[in-house]
Structure formats: structure tokens, C-alpha cells
Amino acid sequence: MHRDSNPPQGGHPMPHKAPSSIFSTASPAKTGRFVIGLGLSILSGILLYLSFPPFDLGYLAWIAFVPVIVAQFIFANTDGQGKLFPALAWAILMGIILLETFPLGYLRGDPVGFLPLLGVLIVGGLIFLLGIPNGTVGFHRRTGYRFFLLFPTVGWVGFEYLRHKAQLGHLWGMLYITQHNNLPLIQLASLGGVWLVSFIVILANYALGLAIITYTPSLSQVPSPTSGGGPGRGPGEGRGEGEGPHVKIPLAVAAAVVLLAHGLGFALLGSQPAMESSLLRVAAVQVGGDLGDFPEVYRLWWRRDWSGMARAVLDDLEPLTREAAAQGAKLVVWPEASLWLDPQEHPPTKARLVRLVQETGIYLVSAYFILPDEGNLGWWLGFVPGMRNEATLISPDGQFLGVYGQDHPIPFTGEAFITERTYPTYQTPFGTLATIICYDNVFTDTTRKLVRKGAQLVAHTTHDFQPMVVYDPLHDVFRAAENRVSIVKADWRYGSAIIDPYGRVLAASPTDRRAKMVLIADVPLPSPSGTFYTRTGDWFGLLCFLGMVALIGYDFSWKKVYKRRLL
Description:
Blueprint: H1 28-51, H2 66-75, H3 79-101, H4 103-108, H5 111-130, H6 137-142, H7 150-166, H8 183-186, H9 189-192, H10 194-215, H11 217-220, H12 245-270, E1 279-286, H13 295-302, H14 306-326, E2 331-333, H15 347-360, E3 363-370, E4 388-394, E5 400-405, E6 426-428, E7 431-437, H16 445-452, E8 457-461, H17 466-469, H18 472-483, E9 486-490, E10 497-499, E11 505-508, E12 517-524, H19 532-536, H20 539-566
Parallel strand pairs: 1-2, 2-3, 7-8, 8-9
Antiparallel strand pairs: 1-12, 3-4, 4-5, 6-7, 9-10, 10-11
Helix pairs in contact: 1-2, 1-3, 2-3, 2-10, 3-5, 7-10, 7-20, 10-12, 13-14
């Protein structure tokens, strides 16, 4: 390779004027490169999709970005094309996932169906316009690829952090989810949260991409995306093809970080204390259907006969609960919104629950939903002030120990609950318990706050629909590993799970079919001190987000200075 001529002050190479259109292909060769780039971007999107559930080929996540990296840095004819390729890979991943998740919504035209797709388009547009999260081709060429590993790693993690905080479809497509079976790696979540897990995976991808760009001369001799013609400046250029220490050192560091991350994970697993003496037998009750599956219950619900509905639902839940108690369970968790009345305010229901716990000697997590009279029964339209989505813990002597209100309502459906933002924990003879509901597990803060208050086990009540359930329990895996807390998830139909403090799934119901069952497992109750992450929170995600903003700002400031010099 040879260098671009006429560098401006500061030693950066002067980019030539790029073609005006991202689709500008002035020659058949450029057209061919653009088509190859599109194909590689599509391949990355498909590999990413396959690395997530339901295919769950998590090992593909370690190479899934490599095709789009090659597309962006080798086959793009313009900087605009270099931005388009990663946006296309992202849109394919999220588009497939969301079309799979909300098919009926898209067909009916419901807002719940279209809003997630709109979010994908907005996020894809941001990637395209700003050149995030991996930096533009022009930026990396101008800086001699010095930030080639840093920018994408902090960029993608910062991007995931932004999606999480802004609730831009963060239930789906978060890279760390692909590693839920990689037990050593997910232990790093106890130090830097899920953000550190994503960081390691992205680092490996861009190290492989850098190696291909550097050590494949036949591919590297292509026009620079910033010049519109003529050879571009590659990462090894000027010191012999691929021989620059600024290439070898980052590659060596990336390899060392990936290996050390797994080594540290094994060490954290090996350091776990013996907790056999503090095991607690728990149960998650799954009735195998919801309101729409039981016509007699559905008719009662439609007539708002909450009392009659409670009797019918308890007829299903009570035998399963007694079965769990007969198998030695000391804590039994019911699904979200099992009742549509407050049992403490309805004497017949309260009496029945008290009798159940007294006769079985269990602690029972009962969840209920309160819809005011003016609320519409259509769930995407029916949210009105005064709603409550709550869970309570009932002791073996019949005492209601407290009430937890769902912490994170779903914003694009209009949810809002009057008892949210409360974090009660409950002292029992065998340890401190807490509860979360529905969407709360997708956020990193709720479980962390409960563990800070001493929780050693968190009961998670849910009512998931099938395409969503393949993802939802995996977030519980990471909440457990982040905070060293056991989690018991109970759902109506599928996806119930019992998870230990290291993210091991001890018992789980199928996610691809409905099942009536009782999950039983013995879970450890770890020290209530939590982890480094429990005490410090999302520091690593925030750090990466700030790093992403700083690098984007540096790129834009350089362009602004360069434009002034042209005037």
C-alpha cells in the first residue's frame, strides 16, 4: 500500500472528496464491491440472529460481526456505504426477531406491533447517520486504525447501555444474551455487569476483523472509502504489510483479554463457598394455560367477576401447590396476575389462602392485578390510573408480610402502577426473600436494589407470550450471576425456571409448548452481601457510553476542522 498524499497539520492524511451518494458506483468493479458488501452485511445479520434463541448457537456471536467488518472496511466504496452496512446487519437481526415476536400485531396494525419495528428503524437510522457504534471508515483510516478495537467495543457496549436506559427494545438483541450458556464468561457480570460480557465478545470480533484486514493483501488493495479511488491506508501500512506493532500489539492484547476473561470466570466459579447447609427447596407452579385457554375462566374475566374468577383459578393452583409442599418445598411461587383482586381486601379469598399456607407449612408468593372499573379489558388500551400489579408473600402462619408493586411498567403500552418503585424484602427463618414482576427482570437495577437490601432469593412472577419466553428467563440468568442471588420464575404456560446464584438453570419448563407442572429444586441462599457489581451498579456500561460519545465527538470535531481548512 502507499500513503494518501497531502496530510493536513497534525499528520493525518487528507481525505479526498467522496462520491455524494452512498449508492455511487462509478464502475463495474465498484458495483461488485458494493454488492459483496451487502451480501456480507446480510450474512452478519443472519449469523447474529442464529446466535440468539431459539437457535441459540451462541458460539456464532464470536464471529458474527466479522463479515460486516470486512464489508465496511474493505468493500465499501464510500463512507456512506461504510455506515450503511452495519445498519443493515442490525436491521436484519432485529427485524427478524421482532417480526417473529409480534406477528399478529403487525397483521392487525396494533400499536404494540408497529412500535418495536419503528424503534428498529430509528436505531438503524442513528447507526447510519452517526457512524456508531463502531466508527466510520474515514475515522479509522485517518487515525491509522489506532482506535479500531477501542471504538467498536466501547461503542457497541455504550449502544446497548443506551438502548437499555431508553428502553429501545432492550429485551431483544442484546449481545450478552448469546452467552447465557457460557458459564465462565457470565461470571464477569458480577464485576462489570452484562456490559462486560458484551465487551469481551465484541472485542474478539473486531480483533478477528483487524487480522483479516491487515493480513489479507489481496483484499486490502481496494479503493479507500474516503478517497473515491486509489488505494486506502490500511492498518499495517507504512511498516510492512501487517508488520506494524500498532497492529500486532492490539491483536495480542485482545487475545489475552478474551483468555483472561474466561480464566477469571473459572476462578470465580471455583471460589464459590460450600452452601449445601443453606439449601432451600423451592417450587414454581405452572398451570399450563392462561385465561384464554380456559373458557369458563375467560367468561368470568370478561364479565369482571373477579370473585368467581379467583375461585376458578385457585381450583387449579391449589392442588399443584399442595403437590409442591408434599415434595418438601418451603417456598412456592405463583404466576403473575393469578388473581384479579387484592386477597387482603377480599375475605373469602384471603381465608382460602391462609388455610392453604397453614395446612402446607409453606411461604407462598401470590400475585394479583387490580384494574379499576373504568379500565378497558383490551390489554393494549386498558391502562388507566389506579392500576396495580402486585405480589405478596404469605407466611405459614397466614400473615401477609408485605406488598411489592411492579417496578418497571411497559411504557409503549401505557402501563403505570400506583405502587411501583417499592422494594420490600422479607425476613424468614431460612433467609431474606424478595419479589419482582414481569418486565422487571429485563432491567439491571430492580434485582440489584433488592439484593442491596439483603435479598438472598428473588421470586419472579410472569405472564409471558410464547415468542417472548425464549428470551425472558435468560435475563434472570444474568440477574442471578450479577448479584449472586437465587431466582425462582413462575409463569402461567411456559418458561418457568429456577436459577442458582451463578446463573445455572437448575430446573426449567419447556419454552416451545405449554405444560402443566411443578418445578422443584434446592437452591443455595448465598451471603446477603451481593457482589462488586451489586455495590457499584452499571459503571462499566456508563463508562463505555461516555467513551462512545467522546470518540464520536472527536470524529465530528476533526471533520469540522477539516471543512474549515477547505474554505
